[in-house]
Amino acid sequence: MEEATATALIAGAPDVTLLLDRAGRIVHANPAARRLLGEGIAGQAWLDLLDDFSREKGATLLARSWVAGGVADWELDHLGPAGAPVLISYTTYLLPGVEPPLLAAIGRDQTVKLELTAQLAATNQQLEGALLALERAHAELKQTQSQLVQSEKMRALGQLVAGVAHEINNPAAFIANNLAHLATLLPGMSALFEAYQPLRALTGASVRAEIEAAEGVVEVEYLWSDLADLVTESQDGIERIRNIVLSLRNFARLDEAELKEADINEGLRSTLALIRPQCKNRIQITESYGILPTTVCHPGQLNQVFLNLLTNAVQAIEGEGQIWVTSACRDDRINVIIRDSGKGMDSATLARLGEPFFTTKPVGAGTGLGLAVSVGIINRHQGQLRFASQPGNGTTVTVELPVTR
Hints:
Elements: H1 3-11, E1 16-20, E2 26-29, H2 31-37, H3 55-68, E3 74-79, E4 85-94, E5 103-109, H4 111-196, H5 205-218, H6 220-251, E6 260-262, H7 264-279, E7 283-289, E8 295-297, H8 299-316, E9 321-330, E10 333-340, H9 347-352, H10 370-380, E11 384-389, E12 395-402
Parallel strand pairs: 7-9
Antiparallel strand pairs: 1-2, 1-5, 3-4, 4-5, 6-8, 9-10, 10-12, 11-12
Helix pairs in contact: 4-6, 4-10, 5-6, 6-7, 7-8, 8-10
């Protein structure tokens, strides 16, 4: 086949058709090629028509075509006359009987395909964005639902605790008043008993013997001191009950819907009074309170946060251990730090803290809502909840709150 014959055959081809020499120069370009790639492409190096990222691939195509006699369906990016990218899929073959030898490169314009692919990618990206937004909305809905459930539980618990505290407080007040009255009577009763002692001499021997026997049974020499000690110990016990009741009432504040000025230290002390029975003489709690200004907040909600954090600290300690509770204020920011000597957490666990329903506790031992609710409460107070931990080195939780007046 002569070159002129080959040129005539490709002139009417609907697809891009190029004849290339050994050097990779365009010997002839049909009208379809000139319309797509530019009128002056004849005589240019074909590789120069490709973009920077396709030239190496284009060089490989030429090399294989001359060795193997042709290749099929190689997609390459060109720069069109206006600078816009043009994607062409090439199939090549050596023209038989042509001297010098020529390589025919037949290309099909893939621009429409490229546009459709771009549209598909854009649509896919939009769908992924919509899916992420839907998943985020679903997660927020679940978190809100869990917080509402937990909030209602705490409200019901608060009402129950307040009622129990009231019922305990009334009889405790009666006992405290009676003990106080008894304490004032004991010295007079003791003096009256001593005043009766000279009358023994006026009684007969048999009566004195009966009196001495009765005094021996009650150990009269210790009676009055024992009674005084019993009254004092009972008063101490009643005072402890009153402090526990006060802590219960402070913790179960029914003011969650109202903002009010509160002392954060008072809330910490009240919550610690409730958490101590869980320590069972195996955990030592060290308290260090700084001077804090009162701040406008939801005290009941913050007490709930402290209770959740302290409960987690107690449960993280296996055997004996320590918990340190400190508070301080700097630059109008209140910091409450709760540190424990427990088993600690790895980075993977730390990254998931605060996720609704995530828990490291055994099945049935935790709901995974405590920290999620706590994070929500602190966020609503414009504060921050930070965790630092390493396996075997305990955990430090920092609650940071702005001072609001």
